[in-house]
């Protein structure tokens, strides 16, 4: 839908969620949305990042990319949040960003928008759905409208996550996104753009 404003706000240590966020941004632009693709700031100590080659490389590659601000959420008609699964929960980096939005929440500036999420975990299932449900607790407090994908398209029977979109990175944490995940990411983007346009109008 034309002129829908979508913010894709995410945290990624080793690049998986970053790749999913880029895929979503492209699909939403194709669907006519204006997109802000924004990462939240890294909070981990330098020695933790340095201890993991994939994390270090991804940090160096993306450290100058635009950072999410409260205005990105206030500006948007729709927001897609991306986070790796951390013990079945939202990564603290994304949670910290959400926790800075108190003033906007207090003014009602986060309500009545369309929201959904995407995640990844190393193991199959691995806490993916609990991570998305934990993320949505915050959306309910915003007064947001959770636009879950459900099984609203036959392709959702292939990726199998009605709560959002998720990917299994595998034991080496480097499984590439497959066709079912890419199709589900495109669907999530197209669906939230369509629903956010209807909500706005
Ligand atoms: C502290 C920590 C906790 C994690 N918890 C889980 C978990 O509960 N289940 C799981 O399958 N993977 C878990 N993982 C693996 C990450 O979810 C996986 O590496 C991540 O989704 C990759 O995303 P990224 O490349 O965008 O950082 C954990 C990783 C870390 C560092």
TrEMBL record:
One GO cellular component term, please give it.
membrane
Q: Name one Pfam family in it.
A: FMN_red
Can you name one GO molecular function term for this protein? Answer: FMN binding
Q: For the Flavodoxin-like domain, which residue ranges apply? A: 6-196
Q: Which InterPro entries match?
A: Flavodoxin/NO_synth (IPR008254), Flavoprotein-like_sf (IPR029039), Flavoprotein_WrbA-like (IPR010089), FMN_Rdtase-like_dom (IPR005025)
SUPFAM superfamilies in the record: Flavoproteins
Q: Which family does it belong to?
A: Belongs to the WrbA family.
Q: Return the protein name.
A: NAD(P)H:quinone oxidoreductase type IV
Species of provenance: Actinoplanes auranticolor
* Source species taxonomy: Bacteria, Bacillati, Actinomycetota, Actinomycetes, Micromonosporales
User: Encoded by which gene?
Assistant: wrbA_1
């Amino acid at each position: 839908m034309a002129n829908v404003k979508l913010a894709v706000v995410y945290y990624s240590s080793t690049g998986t969620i970053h790749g999913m966020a880029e895929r979503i941004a492209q699909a939403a632009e194709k669907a006519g949305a204006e997109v802000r693709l924004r990462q939240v700031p890294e909070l981990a100590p330098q020695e933790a990042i340095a201890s993991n080659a994939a994390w270090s490389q991804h940090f160096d590659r993306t450290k100058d990319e635009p950072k999410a601000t409260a205005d990105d959420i206030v500006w948007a008609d729709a927001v897609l949040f991306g986070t790796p699964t951390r013990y079945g929960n939202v990564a603290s980096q994304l949670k910290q960003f959400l926790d800075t939005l108190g003033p906007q929440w207090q003014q009602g500036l986060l309500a009545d928008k369309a929201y959904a999420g995407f995640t990844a975990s190393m193991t199959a299932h691995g806490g993916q759905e609990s991570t998305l449900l934990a993320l949505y607790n915050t959306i309910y407090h915003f007064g947001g409208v959770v636009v879950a994908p459900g099984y609203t398209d036959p392709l959702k029977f292939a990726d199998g996550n009605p709560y959002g979109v998720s990917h299994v990175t595998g034991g080496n944490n480097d499984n590439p996104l497959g066709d079912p995940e890419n199709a589900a990411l495109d669907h999530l983007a197209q669906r939230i753009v369509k629903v956010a346009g209807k909500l706005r109008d």
